[in-house]
Specification:
single chain, 392 residues, mainly alpha, 3-stranded antiparallel β-sheet, 17 helices, 8 strands, 49% helix, elongated, disordered C terminus, DNA-binding, DNA-binding transcription factor activity, Znf_B-box, nucleus, zinc ion binding, CONSTANS-like
Length: 392
DNA sequence: TGTTGTGATTTGCCCACATCTACGT
DNA sequence: CAACGTAGATGTGGGCAAATCACAA
């Protein structure tokens, strides 16, 4: 959505995009704080590769929306670097945009492009060179070979749970920096709050195992009733594999969150992004372990004060393996996502369907109905030899 | 262009009770 | 250790109210 907005906006604003202070030809892509100069990729590479001091100049990307101010935040959902003003404008536009995750952009020092790119930049002076340099710049933030959209979605999706009822707040709050909505990031805070991230994962893992055992028992005892799909060996193995990936990811996330606390300071709330929408919330989780682990138990509201003022941030720098693992996990889950409600106990369903209702709500059975029911079940038992409610 | 009103759609809650789980005896 | 009893938790579906969305004036 924002991409469309931005592409439109960028296209519209291209005419007034700031030009490079050095070459006065190309559009600037970075802002050098030390030089207080807006530079295009080529000039940036050339100038900051001159010597060691220059290479340590802190630079930030230019806002992709207005292209006139240094970017302050990176919108993960849109993969867009935005200045404070554009960020406020864009992400206060609608509730969906408010849920985008944004992280402060760290200034970058050192060579952004690597020797090859610099050499390239020196040799080529045309648009193509600039384009290549920009690509290089993009790649600097991480391995972009993986589908970025998927990855961003995966990242936000894996990290955060949406809050189903933020209605009360979002009429006044505009998301990340425009209000305080504590509950919305409790899930995240939990990661920060956990002193031992390994334990954190262990808890999840144990929970998963309990769930697995629970389902296993259910299948054993009530296999006739249950309609929960039983995993084949291959699927179990896959689930186990996914667990391993998740374990890696949780470790990674934990570290990232902890470090982020020191790195940044947010005063506002962090809205949830994407993915586990209210549709998902209403869905009974299927038995893939990767699904179960996504739902974090909510932290009691009282604990929030402990973290007020502390920051929460998306991990911005992951090793290629971790990123790949995360995306893989996301894609895997995306494939196995189920939006249909899963009936775990058909017998309960059967009873629910036969139960008397008043305006949709279950009502107490009258004595007559109880008698009829008893007669029916007696008959059923006599005919079938048992009283099990037929499964569906 | 921004505001207001209206209709359509979506979401979450409520209810009773059989079933399930985790205990203790 | 197995069998039994008990208390508390869980899950089930239809209707409704509230929230949200889309569109027009």
């Amino acid at each position: 959505m924002l991409k469309e907005d931005q592409s439109n906006g960028t296209a519209a604003n291209n005419n007034c995009a700031r030009v490079c202070d050095t070459c006065r030809a190309a559009a600037c892509t970075v802002f050098c704080r030390a030089d207080s100069a807006y530079l295009c990729s080529g000039c940036d590479a050339t100038i900051h590769a001159v010597n060691c001091v220059a290479s340590h100049h802190e630079r930030v990307r230019v806002c992709e929306a207005c292209e006139r101010a240094p970017a302050a935040f990176l919108c993960k959902a849109d993969s867009a670097s935005l200045c404070t003003a554009c960020d406020a404008d864009i992400h206060s536009a609608n509730p969906l945009a408010r849920r985008h995750q944004r992280v402060p952009i760290l200034p970058i020092s050192g060579s952004l492009y690597g020797p090859q790119a610099i050499e390239h930049g020196r040799m080529k002076l045309g648009r193509s060179a600039t384009a290549e340099m920009e690509d290089g710049f993009m790649n600097q933030e991480g391995d972009e070979t993986i589908d970025e959209e998927d990855e961003d979605e995966a990242a936000s999706w894996l990290l955060l749970n949406p809050v189903k009822n933020n209605n009360n707040n979002n009429t006044k709050n505009n998301g990340l920096f425009f209000g305080v909505d504590v509950d919305e990031y409790l899930d995240l805070v939990e990661y920060n709050s956990c002193a031992d991230q390994n334990n954190q994962f262990t808890d999840h893992h144990q929970q998963e195992q309990q769930q697995e055992q629970h389902y296993g028992v259910a299948h054993k005892n009530y296999g006739g009733d249950s309609v929960v799909p039983v995993h084949q060996y291959g699927e179990v193995a896959k689930a186990h594999q996914m667990q391993q990936l998740q374990k890696q990811s949780f470790h990674q996330l934990g570290l990232e969150y902890e470090s982020s606390k020191a790195a940044y300071s947010y005063n506002g709330s962090l809205s949830h992004s994407v993915s586990v929408s209210s549709m998902d919330v209403g869905v009974v989780p299927n038995s893939t372990m990767s699904d179960i682990s996504i739902s974090h138990p909510r932290t009691p509201t009282g604990t929030v004060d402990l973290f007020s003022g502390s920051s929460i941030q998306m991990p911005t720098q992951l090793s290629p393996m971790d990123r790949e693992a995360r995306v893989l996990r996301y894609r895997e889950k995306k494939k196995t996502r189920k939006f249909e409600k899963t009936i775990r106990y058909a017998s309960r369903k059967a009873y629910a369907e036969t139960r008397p209702r008043i305006k949709g709500r279950f009502a107490k059975r009258t004595e007559m109905e109880v008698e009829v029911d008893q007669m029916f079940s007696t008959t059923l038992m006599a005919e079938n030899g048992y009283g099990i409610v037929p499964s569906f």
